[in-house]
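Standup notes
- DV: blocked on the single-chain target, sequence here:
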Amino acid sequence: MRIRLEGNRAEIALGMLHLRDAFDVTSMSRAYPDRARPRSYRMYVTITPRKSR
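- DV (later): unblocked, structure below
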């Protein structure tokens, strides 16, 4: 599954922490500046469900 995170750098970092707690993050892009909103960024993350233990 591919997810798009949007926000300032702190919000994106917090979102990544939450995603890593719940899913396996297989890839992530760099933070791209958002043209429409100053000081906002977007990042694309690919995740997979965790295997049950």
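- Follow-up: The mean pLDDT is 94.
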